[in-house]
Specification:
Layout: H1 3-17, E1 24-29, H2 35-51, E2 58-62, E3 68-73
Antiparallel strand pairs: 1-3, 2-3
Length: 74
């Protein structure tokens, strides 16, 4: 497991201590030419889930030095 993912898992464990648990963590590979577009889309999805009752709550983090995002689902 890469260092960035380990750090995210540690952060999610810290968040779970504050009664905020994440149930799955996955990686989304993105075409390097479309990073900005992917970031905008993932941000929109994350914000929309906060507004919907019963929706899964997503958090997306850009993996430093890689063309991928880490998705955390609550």
């Amino acid at each position: 497991m890469c260092v960035a993912n380990k750090e995210l898992l540690q952060k999610s464990k810290q968040a779970s201590d504050a009664s905020e648990e994440f149930f799955s963590v996955s990686t989304i590979a993105v075409n390097p030419d479309r990073i900005d577009e992917a970031y905008a889309c993932l941000t929109e999805v994350a914000e929309a889930t906060l507004k919907e009752d019963g929706a899964k709550i997503y958090r997306f983090y850009k993996t430093e030095g890689k063309d991928e995002f880490v998705c955390m689902e609550k």
